[in-house]
């Protein structure tokens, strides 16, 4: 791995995003609008917003980053850009880490925007420290990016990449504990939810809404999310293809 090549890849991706206002709007504006909509849906039930607002603070950016990262990476392959890049002295790890770094910076800005909006203007009440909530939200965005980079290797078209969203993320959304406590699920579903990364993202957010201080359980959940990010990036580098079949 060459840091200079990785940074060059990240700069190229960021330059492309800067000239794509629609994608930037999807990344930065849409999660904020969804949280505003959620606030007014539960305008008469502030306790409900406090209960589900924090988990969705992480889930919305995760879904958006997954979609954009998977489609952007696949577009590089279908247009032949990826094949040309890999003929140069550029390793797969350099390329994927460059993408991860670029989208990670976007995820940082995204997390700051949704965090400031939700805690500030929308008045979300949490018991835990705000900085830890922001850290978990950022980790969730990075998780969406890493999963998108990994799964893009298994799609042949952008339409197929989009199909991974309902196929891969929606089951996690149903089993993560947002709609029903995971402890109340039957044994099979509970076991499945235990291996899904979104479950730990939601568990961390739920704990931060009810528990003060920096608990070991929250840090454990955060460690699992970060571990899943690193695993997805490693698998993405191993499965990265130059072009579609």
From TrEMBL:
Where does it primarily localize? membrane
List all membrane-crossing ranges.
Answer: 21-42, 54-74, 95-119, 131-154, 161-180, 217-240
Q: Please report the stretch or stretches of sequence annotated as the ABC transmembrane type-2 domain.
A: 18-243
The superkingdom of the source organism is Bacteria
InterPro entries in UniProt? ABC-2_transporter_component, ABC2_TM, ABC2_TM_bact-type, ABC_2_transport
- Where in the cell is the protein located? Cell membrane
**Pfam families in the record, alphabetically?**
ABC2_membrane (PF01061)
Keyword list, A-Z: Antibiotic resistance, Cell membrane, Membrane, Transmembrane, Transmembrane helix, Transport
Per UniProt, what is the membrane topology?
Multi-pass membrane protein
Q: Which family does it belong to?
A: Belongs to the ABC-2 integral membrane protein family.
Q: What is this protein called?
A: Transport permease protein
- Organism listed in the record: Streptacidiphilus cavernicola
């Amino acid at each position: 791995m060459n840091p200079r090549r990785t940074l060059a890849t990240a700069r190229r991706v960021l330059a492309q995003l800067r000239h794509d206002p629609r994608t930037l709007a999807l990344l930065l504006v849409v999660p904020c609008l969804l949280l505003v909509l959620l606030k007014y849906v539960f305008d008469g039930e502030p306790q409900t917003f406090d209960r589900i607002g924090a988990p969705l603070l992480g889930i919305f950016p995760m879904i958006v980053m997954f979609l954009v990262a998977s489609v952007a990476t696949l577009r590089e392959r279908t247009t032949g850009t990826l094949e040309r890049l890999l003929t140069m002295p550029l390793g797969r790890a350099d390329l994927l880490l460059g993408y991860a770094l670029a989208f990670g910076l976007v995820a940082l800005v995204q997390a700051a925007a949704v965090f400031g909006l939700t805690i500030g203007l929308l008045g979300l009440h949490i018991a835990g420290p705000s900085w830890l909530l922001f850290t978990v939200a950022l980790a969730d965005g990075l998780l969406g990016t890493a999963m998108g980079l990994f799964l893009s290797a298994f799609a042949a078209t952008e339409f197929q990449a989009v199909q991974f969203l309902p196929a891969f993320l929606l089951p996690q959304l149903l089993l993560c504990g947002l709609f029903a406590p995971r402890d109340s699920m039957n044994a099979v579903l509970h076991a499945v939810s235990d291996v899904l990364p979104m479950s730990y993202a939601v568990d961390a957010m739920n704990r931060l809404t009810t528990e003060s201080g920096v608990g070991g359980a929250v840090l454990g959940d955060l460690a699992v999310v970060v571990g899943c990010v690193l695993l997805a990036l490693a698998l993405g580098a191993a499965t990265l293809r130059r072009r579609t079949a």
